[in-house]
Batch of 4 targets.
Target 1
Amino acid sequence: MWTTPFSDNGMEFERAFMKNVKRVVVKVGTAVVTRADGRLAVGRLGALCEQLKELNSQGYEIVLVTSGAVGLGRQRLRYRKLVNSSLADLQNPQFELDGKACAAVGQSSLMALYDTLFSQLDVSSSQHLVTDNDFRNGSFRKQLSETVKSLLALKVIPIFNENDAVSTRRAPYEDSSGIFWDNDSLAGLLALELQADLLVLLSDVEGLYSGPPSDPTSKLIYTYIKEKHQGEITFGDKSRLGRGGMTAKVNAAVCAAYAGIPVVITSGYATDSIIKVLQGKRIGTLFHQDAHLWTSVKEVGAREMAVAARESSRRLQAMHSDDRRKILLDIADALEANESLITVENEADVAAAQDAGYEKSLVARLALKPGKASIFFIPIASLAKSIRVLAEMEEPIGRVLKKTELADGLILEKTSSPLGVLLIVFESRPDALVQIASLAVRSGNGLLLKGGKEAKRSNAILHKVITSAIPKNIGEKLIGLVASREDIPDLLKLDDVIDLVIPRGSNKLVSEIKESTKIPVLGHSDGICHVYVDKSAKVDMAKRIVLDAKTDYPAACNAMETLLVHKDLSSNGFLSELIMELQHEGVTLHGGPRASSLLNIPEAHSFHHEYNSMACTVEIVDDVQAAIDHIHQHGRHATSHTDCIVTENHEAAEIFLNGVDSAAVFHNASTRFCDGARFGLGAEVGISTSRIHARGPVGVEGLLTTRWVLRGSGQVVAGDKGVIYTHRDLAL
């Protein structure tokens, strides 16, 4: 769900009621219980039982409604029929099996399996076969409730199924005259009778979609609103094996929800879907009687948002270079003109973060203050200045990178071109939004942004100010602001619309996004930056570089995390001096095996550790090659960020610079220089340790690709007859 920046769409409390849920009715359908060939899906059933056991042990009261008996019985009777068939029967194998007989045979087999699985998990279960006629009897309904209540108190899981073997209806799927018509409606009825807190309907898809789930344009509906969706959604065929399908599930869900029982339709194929639902995770489709109150603002789908950004970017690319440059200058002016408004919203974020008990370093990174820039914040004036610098840089779009004459009168050009649509997920710093947005405009890309919740108001006002400066013929939808992190999964599925994802934040964030999408991801993992001090290093220079690399901004990804020192420096007093200066600055030291014993400091639990604080690891190495080997060994988990050598030995420096396989390698300079602004890129969307496309600080060039432009005068291939290729490089 997407909203306007200043709206409160209720997503934060949309599923907050889950924390009060105790009694849950779970319905599992035939498509989940059985495989496509009709055989039992034992693995899925085992995973289901393990989930229910876990919830049972946590104090939840679980009631299970299961389908699958008819399908299982049909499979077994077919096998028995085949075994007992004569040769003549085998030559004419078509025969019909009575559905009620299938139900009778399958029910005992299904319950035997449930009993075996639950017994293995030390859980007791009970069997309850019912028909709709049973519920016409008030005494039966009362006794049913009392029996189930007693069973739940004993932590027994009651298992219900409609007794199809003795049902009096001939076409239960079509006949809607009964009290319930299938196991979906039975589950809804039981949820009401037993006063459940939640009904979970497990399906073979993730939930209710706006169209066929196989259609890439269909999107998952997280919250069903009867007034909105009832007339918009059409349903396909019923279940491949059962008699319900999504139509039956939605009907049952609507009835239960509007009677006061919240319902979630979600996948029964996932091994932890019920647990995630009860944790309040936004999976599946929620049905709730108050759902219409949570979506009072205009919604924009993920695909629509991405498509709008692409269309706007194409209009931006078609503009003259001077017009694109003017947009950037207008954005800079707008930021300065609205500085007081931006400051008010930003201060509200800072105050909220302080009240929430966030770490001081994070609170400091939130601040957008007037005045001099520091390592913790960038004032509006500095942001505006960086945008103007970006505007004055060489035009990046359409640059001819290579020009070749293929044949007489046939000229080929390789030119720079925007990537298309970028999705940037970043944390904490609202100034990142300004830098990323200005880079997107300069490079002609469409942009979707998701910032951290701690900077919600700052990001919203900055987005509003920036998009207000974009001409109407381009459209403010060039840059979209994502309202909630819960909406990211929808965007990560749009590999046909979004061209690149750049996560800018913690290693956990980067890893989660890489595991969740087919879209190329440009990002970095841990920033384990090393400084190696060689035996020929100048003492004062080495001290300055090491102290700056660690203390200038300890939380930055380009801060030193491991200090490597040549063994000769441990015996001449230099290492002791350096250690004393680091400790004097408040740096906590951890040692490798050699350094910890020599310096009497605690041994580091791992060399692969990013402190992001006033702490680092120290180790002693034999020479420059040992330093390189250490960096490669302990940077093998794809860190390869920034590494530095301090030495006066030119040969050692070249060995290090050519031997270390990192995104950035420095000689006699602090690792803190690895930054887009310091590299003269104007701004950066982040630092990449990927080996495909851009690497290191990513500025405008990292947001471009190439394309080929061929100019001819009527040439045709015609089997290459008569074409004389010259393949001659031409001057640009």
Target 2
Amino acid sequence: MSQIVIKNLFDPLLIESKTAATVVLMLSSPENEVLAKACDALYKFASKGDENKVTLLGLGAVERLYKLISHEDPIVRRNAIMVFGIMASNHDVKKLLRELDVTSSLISQLAPEEDVVIHEFATLCLAHMAVEYTTKVQIFEQGGLEPLIRLLGSPDPDVKKNSVECIYLLVQDFQSRAAVRALNIIPPLLELLKSEYPVIQLLALKTLEVISKDRETRIMLGENKGLDCLLRILETNEFSDLHAEALAVLGNCLEDVHALQLIQQTGGLKKLLSFIGVSTVPDIQKNAAKAITKAAYDSENRKILNEEEVEKYLINLLEIDNDEVKVAASQAISAMCENLASKHAFGLQGIPQLVQLLSSDNEEVKEAAVTALANLTAASPRNARAVAEAEGIKPLVNTLNAQRDGAIANAATVLTNLAMQEPFRINIQSHGIMSVLAEPLRSTSSQVQSKAAFTVAAFGCDADARTELRDAGGLRPLVELLCSKNEEVRRNACWAVMVCASDELTAGELCRLGALDILEEINLSTGRKNNFSEAALEKLLDNNLSRKYSQMGYLSSSNIITDGFYDCGQVKAIDPGIHWNRLVADKMGGPIERDKLHDFSWELHISEIEFELKCNVVPIGKVKKGTFYHRALLFKVIADRIGIGCSLVRGKYNRAWNEVKLVDDSPQGIAGLLLPPHEYIVDLMFAPGFLIKQGSAEADQYKNI
């Protein structure tokens, strides 16, 4: 009777969701024949679609099958792994398989003596699971790479396909890339390029593309005649579907001078470039341009490519009606510009095409084109003139409003390069560049800030340009850039302020916005000051002679006193210990009222920094809301840097303070009497800058004694 039930139950035409539950229960049978047939029936059921896989998942089939993939009976084991292989394509099944940690059991099924069907479905399951990073790590740590590489030589094409696909996913991680190199993966991968199945060839090429990013692997590829294999694929019309991927691998190889020289000597480079000129497939054209870009990172490679007249091929690619090709070609031109002969060649032909791309609706195309123009016009008045003659000024100014930071920064660079020639500078100013620059000056990108400030310096020599910037509200963000922590931004901002301070109105507005005070502070710091900060300060003072005479005690013959000048006397030097007390407090959240100290939520701020850094060690410079011990530590650090002697004392309840010794003035009428120093506590919390005499009630209160 049981045989009849089993026979009917396992009829593939009858098994549906109703009977599936019964079949799943039979996975616990003690009879091997029942187990084998149950697994076979579930395999056929799961093969019908994702909905059936979800059904089996809900019925608990995965957990029961997991116990069977290591079953002693080879048929049961084979059939169970077949179900796993087909079900693992479902996301929720994969999640459960990870939780069950099935990878170790699957890897153990890849032994040479196992059935080829087991190899096929175990590798299929691993390939499905290897899309997840955690599973990649598991397979690597459990030694899965070695058997997978061995199975690349399997006589079964499905095993080859699944194995190479799994390896392709694993080598996305650098540890696996190094490991497969040590396991000598190159020969079996090159052998797969001869497969009669395009999908296997394609996966082999994709894997080679990833692993050939490492120089050591490229050396092994060359030693195994890999370059010849790639060139043969490119020369074979029947392999046209593989040409794009073959070019991607070749592009990695061309980063090495030796590889490029070898290809040139054998005539392969000419074939490669002529192939680019003939092909009409965008992916092939794109990957060819990318290959040239990678090769052009090396100066010797650039010379070789220039000898082969690579420039004409890249210029032709700019005309292709495909945005990805245009981007890749523009990037290759940027890289080749490091070669002066190439730079000259592109200037003669490529600049008008690049200018046209500035009007593209594609922001990536726009960025790539303007970056190429920035490289072409650098230290090249001839190319700068070619840009102007190609009517590039208006689209360049418009590009300052682009969405991508790289496009804005490079547009500013090109305009600055053009401004070195007076007629072009005047032309650019007529397009209202200073009004447009007001917005890039407000950018949060240090790259954009730096280039925008540099461009202001280039155009600020003109009085009308300064007026335009002032009217557009551009001086305020420029002054704010003086406080930047980025050295290049700060230097260029100082330069721009120095240039813009050439007239009294602009200099006065800059002073009103705080530029003078900021520059004085910068110049007190040996680490932050620069040649332009000192020159900018002097230029501002030249337009505020009363303050200059008060601070510097000197007016030169070129400083002409006009009505309104006044002498307010010599400015007394500020106690730097009192510049720095207030600075520390400002950096740590400002002064706190005593009765509101408990509302100052510094603990949450510190926890957020620790969470961001994934570390309990917090750099003091990242703290923006600090309590007593943060402020005292920062004051000690700064005091040590500027030569003020002070101590750092830890108290209780998160209290800490700094103690300094100061000498009081001599008593009136007793000149020259040197009194012993008194010890003070520096208030950094409640009244920053106030010194509390040690031993006083106020001192005890500050220390919370």
Target 3
Amino acid sequence: MSSGDENIILNPRFEDGLNYWTGRGCQIGVRNSIDGKIFPQSGNFFAIATGRTQGWNGIQQEITGRVQRKRAYEVDALVRIYGRIATTSTVQVTLYVQLPDLREQYLSIANVQATDKDWVQLRGKFLINNSPSKIIIYFEGPPAGIDILVNYCLVKHAAKPPPSHPPVIEDPEFGVNIIANSNLDDDTKGWFPLGNCQLSVRTGSPHVLPPMARGSLGPHEPLSGRYILVTGRTQTWMGPAQMITEKLKLYLTYQVSAWVRVGTNAFGPQNVNVALSVDDQWVNGGQVEASDDRWQEIGGSFRLEKQPSKVMVYLQGPSQGVDFMVAGLQIFPVDRCARFRCLDLQIDLIRKRDVILKFTGSEWSGLLGAIVIVKQRENSFPLGSCINRTNLDNEDFVDFFVKHFNWAVFGNELKWYWTEPQQGNFNYRDADEMLAFCDKNGKQTRGHCIFWEVESQVQSWVRALSQSDLTKAVLNRLTGLLTRYKGRFKHYDVNNEMLHGSFYQNKLGKDIRAMMFRTAQKLDPSAQLFVNDYHVEDGDDAKSSPEKYSQQVIDLQKQGAPVGGIGIQGHIDSPVGSIVCSALDKLATLGLPIWFTELDVSSNNEYVRAEDLEVMLREAFAHPAVEGVMLWGFWELFMSRENAHLVDAEGEVNEAGRRLLCLKKQWLSRAHGLVEEEGEFRFRGFHGTYDVEIITGCEKVCKTIVVDQGDGPLEVSIDL
């Protein structure tokens, strides 16, 4: 086994020819130049993988026995591509792992967009949870006919990144609008047209603050009623703009708010976007679909974590030639702590219950003055996480998961492309083992997902089926999965991301989605059946607004679909409580339980990440329609987003993880006191399981009670 920080790759710079390297389905060689044009950037040689006929062909080295399990490694390589048809292509470094039971795993470590012009650095990290019998690292990716060049490849124990520090923000000026002349008191001063459109000021817009902004700002002076009319637009990106570079502070979360409306010359719904150009990079400040002759609220948020040299805010989106209007644009930093204080009051109302303990079986007068100690063992609110099969081989991961979560969802192992990668070739082994693990540890499970409506996530053999064969395959999938696991999964996401994809609907007609729900209910009547989609709660995507999501559920119900719950994925950046709450309020009108099903937040700074996570957990816990939260993982290198983990790859809990544990502790109740007259003790506590100790002069009695949700005080008789 490797120890210390030495490189575990043998002959990493090809100074010893091809020693230790082999081709993966192709020929390989070592060169010092090609055509007198391509030379190594480092050292004297580079390797070439040529004659590639498949995307997975490339150059590889076996590293079995040189890596330690549960130890993080970093790959650093220099790559480029070459060939007659080569311009740009993705080059990926992948780990092939074979387990002693001959199961195979492919771990994508990193990828980069490579060119035929320059060497580019390819960097990434990996972690082995188990004890494989074989490990191979290899380069792959470009289409057949394109050569892969590797100048060097180093693999070392990954250094810990420098610790984050809480950002220090002087005078944040919460709630203060940074937009100049927002009310247009001074005509268009401070504004300029982006592109060759025209701006003019008119009257007739709303005087009231948009609701999401009002949720953050509270009482506020009325808006002026003036708006900017944008005409003469010849490109979608044209609209009113302002420079705001000097007004922004790093690490503050900014809320965006405005009223917008499209002109009468619009043909069909128009997407309107508040955008920021941050050093010429587009940043989304919120989107809305404007489809009629009314003012509509647009809201979003953003945060900067690197010092920019130039920031411009502008409104854009409608088709060329379409006029649009904007009124009362506000961009202001949000006071999250002030909102937390309000949420605590709401949490107390909906997540706690008054409890009356009535002691029986003993002369109550003998109990008068006895000491009662009440400690909550577990909050019953569902808080779970995504897990993968390979995680179960890591004892540290298992220990954290079992201690801190009461629900689980499988990252990939229940998806159709995993359970039937080729037609008739089934793999339920991973899901079976994961379910057995959850049963053994008393964890409830969500089934994610039966189908995935986005075409790029549908396996190739399914995409190639005829209409009649696809119908049969869909029924076989439903029958096979739901009969195998009948009664085992409490929830199913039936057809994932129907706001963002339409593969099955396009192929099989509009009723197919409702049919999936109806058939699933017949096969497993005990399971709650969910819709599940993303960007519903953040204002970032006009396709998946709460209004559109609600309408989709209503349309499914009209077709007889037994929709039992609303899944909000929750892959969110710089969340703002009032925006999230507004979406939850709108969806709650459907009367269905809401779950955050895939929650993660991302920031380079773990203190900012912790604050983002706290915003989302508090908003969920404070909303009466939310019945559970699932994190989309917590362990570094096993999450879909970078800088989103709560625990690093080698098991160290970071500030975001500590914030989660702190909130869990905060949401446990304790009480103590003396037995009152008539043998009673009263307290108010969170729903969940409690240990109760009664201490008299001569004995101590311990009991366990459960505080369920319900109206009115809960009376619990304790027989002594």
Target 4
Amino acid sequence: MKLPSGPRQIDKTPSQRLLQVIGKDMRIIVFGFRSRTKQRRAVYDALLRCTRPARLWDLYAFACGRSRFGNTNPKERLLNEYFRLLGLKSPQASARTIEDGSSVVSNECWRISNVNSNYTMCATYPFALLVPKSISDIEIQQACTFRARCRLPVITWCDPGTRAVLARSSQPLVGLMMNMRSNADEKLVAALLTQLIGTKEQKRKLYIADARPRKNALANGAMGGGSESSANYFQSEIVFFGIDNIHAMRESLSRLRDYVDTHGATSSDGMSSFLRHGGWTWGGGNLSSMSASVSTLGDSGWLIHVQSVLAGSSWIAARVALESATVLVHCSDGWDRTTQLVSLASLLLDPYYRTIIGFQALIEKDWLAFGHPFSDRAGMPIASGSGSMPFELSRQSSTGSLSPSPMRQASGSFPSQAPSPSHAQNNYSPIFLQWVDCVSQLLRMYPFAFEFSSAFLVDLLDCVLSCRFGNFLCNSEKERQQAGISDSCGCLWMYLADLRASEGSSHVHYNLFYDPTKHEGPLLPPAAALAPTVWPQFHLRWTCPSEAQAGEVEAICRNMAKKISELQKAKEVAEAKAKETTSTVESLTVELRNEKLSSSSAWNLTKRARKEIAAIKRAMQSLGCKIHFSEDSECVGIENNAAGIPQKSIYSASDEESSGYFQHDNKSDMSVFDTVLADDPVNPITRVCESICPLRTRDGGCRWPDAECARFGSEFVGLKANFNALDRLSIYDSYFQPE
């Protein structure tokens, strides 16, 4: 590519040689090189080696080494989705259940069959199929021969309430005269028509939705294919949706890319759309040029194709939801347009698929497990022959020919060779991109129904096209298993989940307006609402970056949500601190109350001790002893003055009663010591006992066994004097009998 020749300049600027790189993400980059250098050829060869490697193992997903985003077994995830559709919550799929066949379960109407566990019946179908319970595995093998690529009718979604079924297959092999029939195929399709709930004999209606234009279906009859006859299938109706093939979609996206590059704010040639065609206003400054620009967008046909897929999917969802009918969808091979329709209809019918986890399950079931050729459609290399592969895995173009490709043959060895650029280009088609575009249109129409945002869809497409992960490599589940994709490459879903975990619910992948209570049932958009627009977040992000933003309102709402989240966290921290402070205050209050109780108890003990000290002092004085106490109530001296003690106590009983210190005791015995203290030779009370007791033996024994005094080696905590007994007793009385 060379720059267009312009008017001659005096300063003769050296000419440049350009290299244009067209990306699958709507990006067009132009590199300029100086003339008479070989840099452009070297860069071109390097880019060619990276974009079209000869082997699958040369892709970045393998060359980057083991990823930290480990991939789990996709078969387990498929079985878990089957269990959910059957309404079985208890079983959980594992590698052991897959190996021993215990995953083959059923409900009242449907069952999981492992007839294709080794991919011998159909190489592009998953290892497990959801089929009617009344159909045996032998009948399934007989029915598959009547469908192109052996892709027989199987269940892809079922309503547990109404038992309505959404099924998929490939075109029937009815031949040129449209007169070929198969009893096994007709029996299998009839088994999809279960009895309507609430009726005795009436069966539900069958709609056979052919995604192709009617003329294309008739043309395929010349090569052995075709479409069903409603006369051969009970209570059926044939509907054609008129969706074009992969080649029309490829050309349409190319024209759309040229349009946004030409009329964008920053085009790849460096010229702004405001200055194009010699004018400084948009579109050249005149109405005719503006109309021409708008018609160029319409001529691309992209929005028309998106509308066709949306309309077909909405029609299918309405038949299932409103009539409880069974719909069988197919195109030619059953892996392009069929996948678009059944997955989009499931998205409209089942709110679970409108969550992030459910959306992942939907893609893995309808796109990956049922054999959409991602390698061919995205222009990626196929798994060619190498030391670890028994034969080359190639795939034939879906141009209508029904001859089996080398991959479909049971055995055989083929030489390893890289696909030619023309072959890869003929198979390339943005089928998955178009489907994600349809999802973005539904997200625009129903902003409260989806948990994920448009940014999530953009990141998903970028990851699919980046070759960083192995989920979307190869053309079928069988090829990915043979290549060891799940063990060798990273998982896209784990990567996206890790991104969301970093910011939580405030991440851009989450839809701020999501409210599952507003759309708990199916979404049934009317025909008037199916008016798609250019998806700005994807199609315009390189040429119109400011217009491609999510929108000022959404950005403001997201910022407000972040602030609310931060305030909520601050509120939780403040509440935790307040709770902790309250707990501390309560504990301090309890401690203060205990301290008050302890202080009151200590004060009572102090008053009691003072009273007892006064009593002891009086008792000792009545015995003829003088006790001197210090200010801290310790005994500092005792004087024995027994000779001068009168026979009567200096205190009378009336004086005691009038003093108010002690209560009168009617007991006849004298209890001088009532409470126990620790026996301590230093204790003043012990010294008093030893000094005044005339009946202690020399060995320290006490000869007063009946009295409540302090014995040698015993413990007491205080003394209590019985003044009544002391008044009645004289120290000269023979109260104690001598030995």
